[in-house]
């Protein structure tokens, strides 16, 4: 009698174990247990040769010991390569590189009429371009974009398909474009077209990233420090884990990323690079295997290039509740899918001196 009972109990628990394992496999969660340690994983994100020597070879004689593994090789439709050209010793302080989706004509217009307006300040030179891909299946969109570009001369487009999964290609296009055509500009903000941005606060932030916004209330620093030279700034995720659940939007298999966690990265919606960081990121990007999520890809490049992401809470990953006073120090905020609302809030902030 007791023998029979324990046998049954054994079978029941064995069944639980099997079902449990089955669930772990079906959901992908078992991958959490098999992930490799992160510590030195960056040597496997591309060729293991040290980046510094490859960069030196590229800069000196153009023939590196290892060929780049991830060059941007799409054909440009529009480059607007004149964008960052200036007269005499004029200096472009800031370039907005706006990641936009091809059909977002209205969003682009609202940005041109708000934070992307190039003549915003008479004494600070800023420039704005929009990065878009192509939609071969919708030729009427291309007709419209051709017209838009004729009017504004601010579209950067290449022949890859414009969709979420090709986001890293879009970011790479931006890096490639800026590296080739904007070698003299001071800072670049890569930003999505559903953002609110305060140009005034970006300029304030850039004067002293470490002490923004406190320094505004006390004293003004103008010395260039290391943070400004090697700036890669925005809303930083210090340690995040690959999603191994198969239904997650951010699911990634062990085959695509075998390590336990990601490098620190700035969320892709808005990140600032200094000129020197742009160069580092560009070289790192051509020696880093392409990764689907563009912000993590940039984090990988930064890790390789030995750039440390700089976090500031006034880059908002999720949109703070709007009040006039509450946006006083806001540098950039995600969550403005409605371009008219963004424009209205920007107007209000501009009128009180915050944008
Ligand atoms: C972009 O995305 C589409 C669809 O997801 C894919 O078929 C295509 O190969 C991707 N790459 C390029 C370069 O367009």
**How would you sum up the major sheet?**
8 strands, mixed
CATH topology of the largest domain: Spore Coat Polysaccharide Biosynthesis Protein SpsA, Chain A
The end-to-end distance, rounded to whole angstroms, is 81 Å
Shape: globular
Strand segment count: 11
Q: Uncertain segments of ≥5 residues (pLDDT<50)?
A: none
Following the backbone from N to C, one meets helices and strands in this order, namely HHHEEHEHEHEEHHHEEHHEEEH
Name the strands of the widest sheet in spatial order: 1-4-3-2-5-8-7-9
User: What is the total number of structural domains?
Assistant: 2
Cofactors, ions and other ligands in the entry: 2-acetamido-2-deoxy-beta-D-glucopyranose
Number of helices: 12
Structural category is: alpha/beta
Report the sheet-strand fraction.
Answer: 15-25%
The second-level CATH architecture of the largest domain is Alpha-Beta Complex
Calculate Rg over CA atoms. Answer: 24 Å
Look at the structure and give the mean pLDDT. 91
Please estimate the helix content.
25-40%
The CATH class name of the largest domain reads: Alpha Beta
């Amino acid at each position: 009698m007791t023998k029979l009972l324990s046998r049954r109990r054994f079978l029941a628990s064995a069944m639980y174990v099997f079902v449990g394992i089955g669930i772990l496999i079906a959901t992908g969660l078992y991958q959490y247990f098999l992930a490799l340690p992160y510590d030195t994983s960056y040597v496997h994100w591309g060729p293991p040769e040290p980046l510094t020597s490859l960069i030196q070879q590229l800069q000196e004689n153009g023939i590196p010991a290892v060929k780049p593994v991830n060059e941007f090789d799409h054909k440009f439709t529009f480059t607007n390569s004149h964008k960052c050209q200036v007269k005499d010793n004029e200096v472009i302080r800031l370039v907005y590189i706006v990641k936009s989706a091809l059909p977002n004509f209205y969003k682009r217009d609202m940005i041109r009429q708000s934070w992307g307006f190039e003549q915003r300040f008479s004494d600070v030179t800023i420039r704005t371009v929009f990065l878009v891909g192509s939609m071969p299946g919708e030729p009427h969109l291309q007709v419209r974009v051709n017209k838009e570009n004729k009017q504004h001369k601010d579209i950067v487009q290449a022949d890859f398909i414009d969709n979420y999964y090709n986001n890293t290609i879009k970011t790479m296009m931006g890096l490639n474009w800026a590296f080739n055509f904007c070698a003299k500009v001071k800072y670049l903000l890569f930003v999505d077209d559903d953002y609110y941005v305060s140009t005034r606060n970006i300029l304030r932030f850039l004067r002293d990233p470490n002490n923004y916004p406190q320094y505004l209330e006390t004293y003004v620093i103008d010395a260039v420090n290391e943070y400004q030279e090697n700036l890669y700034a925005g809303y930083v995720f210090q340690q995040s884990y690959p999603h191994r659940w198969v239904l997650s939007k951010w699911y990634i298999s062990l085959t695509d990323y075998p390590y336990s966690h990601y490098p620190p990265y700035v969320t892709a919606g808005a990140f600032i690079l200094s000129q020197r960081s742009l160069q580092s990121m560009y070289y790192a990007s051509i020696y880093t295997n392409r990764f689907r999520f563009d912000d993590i890809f940039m984090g990988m490049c930064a890790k390789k290039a030995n750039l440390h992401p700089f976090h500031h809470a006034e880059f908002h990953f999720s949109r703070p509740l709007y009040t006039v006073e509450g946006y006083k120090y806001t540098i950039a905020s995600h969550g403005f899918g409605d371009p008219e609302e963004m424009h209205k809030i920007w107007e209000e902030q501009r009128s009180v001196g915050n944008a």
